[in-house]
């Protein structure tokens, strides 16, 4: 009987029937739930994004899980999405010690390092920018932004860009209409940027990011940023927009395609998994050619735009925009 249940739980997991797993295990008396069943229950709760409940379950078998890298990985994942990054770090570091070299564990540790890196104060950012002329100011309505075509050469408005990418500035009603179609609320910084220049091909179109275990950062090239609308081929709701890209290529349903890449097997997405559909999404890279591997790029759109560099790994010069 028990073996049949475990086989059924695995089958439900493969079919993404996570509610079935939760219902089946919670129907069993608490006293009869052993370590393996709690592991299945916690994993299903994680997949349902019920992370607090998952942590509660994992902690009931904490003593038995101390030498199990999978237990540390699963509770670390729950802590991560609850934004309890120090607890998540401890869990993933223990998982890595018990099972060295696991790629997923290394990836989470890299994401945690990126999220918990100390951020300089705003005054320090401005001072550093003025001294080095290599930083890009945050997108703001109070000062010129790198996205403002009247104050910077951020955009490359060549003939191809104007024909297939650039749209008129969207109205509030158009923004709301696109959000309704996508079922996601677009980041405020992105909307503000698109009202100044709605989609297009940036001159600074390389995204630096760190891979777990790599000594140096890698650069990902983007083809362009999708604008708000449907009239142009490369716009959020266009002929080859976000939904089309996801459905045609089998990309994960985690949010909205933000940027296309020269390779059809790569995209940059707004990732809403750590928030609800109306929250602030993170920015990730999805690699179809590597089993749809998702790599964290930036905590929000504003940070993503400010991180873009040219092919020589240099950011726009502030003297061009201020």
UniProtKB/TrEMBL annotation:
* Domain spans labelled Knr4/Smi1-like: 169-307
The residue spans of each TPR repeat are: 69-102
Keyword Hydrolase listed? The answer is no
Q: Which Gene3D superfamilies match?
A: SMI1/KNR4-like, Tetratricopeptide repeat domain
* SUPFAM superfamilies recorded: SMI1/KNR4-like (SSF160631), TPR-like (SSF48452)
InterPro entries membership: Knr4/Smi1-like_dom, Knr4/Smi1-like_sf, TPR-like_helical_dom_sf, TPR_rpt
Give the superkingdom in one word.
Answer: Bacteria
Keyword terms: TPR repeat
Heme in keyword set: no
Which Pfam family is one of this chain's hits? TPR_8
> What is the name of this protein?
SMI1/KNR4 family protein
What taxonomic classification does the UniProt entry list for its organism? Bacteria, Bacillati, Bacillota, Bacilli, Bacillales
